[in-house]
């Protein structure tokens, strides 16, 4: 399963990010709290290296709190702030403006010395597909300006959005990097839906998910799917899950496609509990 997904609009987005950085004061980078490394786009890291940055670890309702807190300590620095958020319900987002004020304190102080007190921060919002950028923008703007969807690649062009909290947002389409070198990165992005299922073999992906979760979250699989125990064979586990969930076709054979979609959907929706697939070194 070798993934190389780099649609044409992503080439354009990379160029636009580089060209438009001079128009903004700070970059908000949104990552998936379950896969903090895999959802970090090295293209964005290099492009935005000279700007103050606020990293939002989104989807904390799906990740383990203890692991997320470790990531916050790991990633925070003088020029980089880190906040855990849930862009769907707004949890943690009230801390964004104070964090931006802290990152841009020197600029704000200079403007206030000139008598400018009504300060608007211009912010570029970046992140990989399906990481929650549009949900973040809609929540902070308090309306549905940005298109949202549970599939990657919804936003296709740059757009400016004004808010009532002294922030102007530049939205950009989700951008992956041209070639996904790491097998683990490929799988983590596929598990969480950052890569379109249409280009994946969902049965192979579900088997790999069982294999990965069996290492640290075997109890979740056993409990959720009412298994007596887990086998060392992921295929055997998948077949037992299928039988317990009624994913059977005529003749008593396993409906592998159906049980694969059940597994992926329930992992992505949090029905398997809070799971973090990556930990700090």
From TrEMBL:
<keyword id="KW-0547">Nucleotide-binding</keyword>
<feature type="domain" description="CP-type G">
    <location>
        <begin position="11"/>
        <end position="178"/>
    </location>
</feature>
<comment type="function">
    <text>Required for a late step of 50S ribosomal subunit assembly. Has GTPase activity.</text>
</comment>
<dbReference type="Pfam" id="PF01926">
    <property type="entry name" value="MMR_HSR1"/>
</dbReference>
<dbReference type="InterPro" id="IPR016478">
    <property type="entry name" value="GTPase_MTG1"/>
</dbReference>
<dbReference type="InterPro" id="IPR006073">
    <property type="entry name" value="GTP-bd"/>
</dbReference>
<dbReference type="InterPro" id="IPR019991">
    <property type="entry name" value="GTP-bd_ribosome_bgen"/>
</dbReference>
<dbReference type="InterPro" id="IPR027417">
    <property type="entry name" value="P-loop_NTPase"/>
</dbReference>
<keyword id="KW-0342">GTP-binding</keyword>
<protein>
    <recommendedName>
        <fullName>Ribosome biogenesis GTPase A</fullName>
    </recommendedName>
</protein>
<comment type="similarity">
    <text>Belongs to the TRAFAC class YlqF/YawG GTPase family. MTG1 subfamily.</text>
</comment>
<keyword id="KW-0963">Cytoplasm</keyword>
<dbReference type="InterPro" id="IPR030378">
    <property type="entry name" value="G_CP_dom"/>
</dbReference>
<dbReference type="InterPro" id="IPR023179">
    <property type="entry name" value="GTP-bd_ortho_bundle_sf"/>
</dbReference>
């Amino acid at each position: 399963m070798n993934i190389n997904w780099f649609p044409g609009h992503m080439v354009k987005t990379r160029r636009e990010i580089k060209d438009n950085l001079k128009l903004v004061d700070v970059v908000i980078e949104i990552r998936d709290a379950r896969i903090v490394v895999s959802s970090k786009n090295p293209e964005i890291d290099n492009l935005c290296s000279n700007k103050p940055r606020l990293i939002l670890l989104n989807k904390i309702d799906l990740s383990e709190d203890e692991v997320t807190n470790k990531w916050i300590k790991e990633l925070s620095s003088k020029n980089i702030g880190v906040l855990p958020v849930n862009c769907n319900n707004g949890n943690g987002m009230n801390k964004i403006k104070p964090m931006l004020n802290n990152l841009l304190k020197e600029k704000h102080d200079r403007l206030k010395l000139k008598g400018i007190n009504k300060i608007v921060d211009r912010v570029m919002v970046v992140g990989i597909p399906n990481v929650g950028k549009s949900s973040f923008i809609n929540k902070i703007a308090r309306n549905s300006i940005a298109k949202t969807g549970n599939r990657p690649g919804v936003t296709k062009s740059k757009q400016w959005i004004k808010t009532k909290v002294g922030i102007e947002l530049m939205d950009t389409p989700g951008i992956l990097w041209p070639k996904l070198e790491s097998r683990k990165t490929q799988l983590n992005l596929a598990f969480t839906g950052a890569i379109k299922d249409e280009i994946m073999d969902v049965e192979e992906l579900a088997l790999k998910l069982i294999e990965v979760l069996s290492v640290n979250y075997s109890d979740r699989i056993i409990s959720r799917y009412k298994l007596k125990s887990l086998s060392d064979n992921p295929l055997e586990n998948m077949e037992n899950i299928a039988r317990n969930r009624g994913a059977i076709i005529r003749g008593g054979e396993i409906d592998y496609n159906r049980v694969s979609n059940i597994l992926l959907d329930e992992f992505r929706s949090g029905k398997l509990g809070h799971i973090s697939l990556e930990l700090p070194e």
